Amino acid sequence: MSIIWKGVMPAVTTPFTANDELDLELFKVNIKAQLQAGVHGLVLGGTLGEASTLTDKERRILTREAVALADGKVPVLMNIAEQTTKAAINLAKTAEEDGAKGLMMLPPMRYKASDAEVVAYFKAVANSTSLPIMIYNNPIDYKIEVTLDMFEELLKACPNIQAVKESTRDTTNITRIKNRFGNRLAIMTGVDTIALESLLIGAEGWVAGLVDAFPAETVAIYELQKAGRIQEAIAIYRWFMPLLELDINPKLVQYIKLASTYTNIGSEYVRAPRLVLQGDERKAIIKIIEDALKTRPTLPEYKHLNH
């Protein structure tokens, strides 16, 4: 399966049990809910997947489980967020062996690499695998920006670098990318709070966060805007915005996992050093979730609008 870079691709959470083990039963519940809602791909081991806390063995288990559940209907992607080029190449290799159809890749972790080092890192991994790659460009959270000049070099050298998860939070970057690269670099918006506007000005898809709790609403926004039913998409988006803002907080993992407990497709267990929410912060997030559920919109039939 070559990847069609479009639609909603959840950055799925990794569910844990109270004993800090993978909760594969709940993982299945969530993945099935995503597929039922009509998502177009699944991204494992991203920020929301608590990538930095997973062992190699756990990653492989999650990949195989997701591939089995997706059953060829949508591609499964594994995120690469490693400290060394060697480890990144190894993860690309095992992801491919386990059935992943693509990779999402962050620049090197911890070390603030130079532009040349970042380009060399991406090239080394891209040249080690046949899998298509989406570069995750998130300078706000990860402190390294992949500039358009860097993309120019990468696109010339690596045909399997095909997409960017655009998380600079600057929507004008979408137009810059389109003006410079046309359709050579697909754009997947990576920030929930600017997702609809990003789609309307040229992003092909949405690597989403709150989709982990509200899959149908997320896919409905994508499908409605694609069908030109913009006002309906905007109405759902406006209802959704207080929830979407949970995606741009340092505690997005805890917030989104808590939200998923209210829709019965997740649990709030996180892996230490993260801790479940307590006190006033917990009350504030619960209020946002409960207020949204009270006014949850009735969705139009959205699944077959664009087929």
Automatic annotation (TrEMBL):
Xref: Gene3D superfamilies: Aldolase class I (3.20.20.70)
Listed Pfam families: DHDPS
GO molecular function: 4-hydroxy-tetrahydrodipicolinate synthase activity
SMART domains assigned to the protein according to its UniProt record, in alphabetical order: DHDPS
Keywords (A to Z) from UniProt: Lyase
InterPro entries: Aldolase_TIM, DapA-like
Active site: Y136 (proton donor/acceptor), K165 (schiff-base intermediate with substrate)
Superkingdom of the organism of origin: Bacteria
Annotated pyruvate binding sites: V207
Family to which this protein belongs: Belongs to the DapA family.
Official protein name in the record: Dihydrodipicolinate synthase family protein
